[in-house]
Amino acid sequence: MISYDEINNLGSQDLLINCTPCGMHPNIDESPVKKEDMENFNIAIDTIYNPKETLFLKNAKKLGLTNINGLFMLVGQAIKAQELWNDLTIDEKIISDIYNRVLKLI
Questions:
Q1: What top-level class would CATH report for the domain 1-69?
Q2: Where in the chain are all domains bearing CATH 3.40.50.720?
Q3: What is the CA radius of gyration of the chain?
Q4: Are 56 and 32 in contact (CB under 8 A)?
Q5: How confident is the model over 25-71, as pLDDT tens digits?
Q6: How far apart (Å, rounded) are the C-alpha atoms in residues 20 and 92?
Q7: 19: exposed, middle or buried (Cβ count in 10 Å: 0-12, 13-18, 19+)
Q8: What digits encode the pLDDT tens for the residues 64-76?
């Protein structure tokens, strides 16, 4: 783990993940990382799913980074919880199906 101030000193990296609530509704104009500090990354993942595209992800998109929000993870966690609570095994294809349905709703 490093501080935000150290991000731009890393050189080329594959992945940058935001696991903070920074950028979550209603604070949608915030990002934990400055756009210029994201330039050396290839992929940006934000665990936030509301809004669907945070400022963090918008900046990543502008820089041409692959960007992914937290909705798929949320759906996957919900499926896993159902499996644990109900002693079930749910086909992994269901995660994608539910994700795609939810994506159409938001």
A1: alpha beta
A2: 1-69
A3: 16
A4: yes
A5: 899 999 999 999 999 999 999 999 999 999 999 999 999 999 999 99
A6: 27
A7: exposed
A8: 999 999 999 999 9
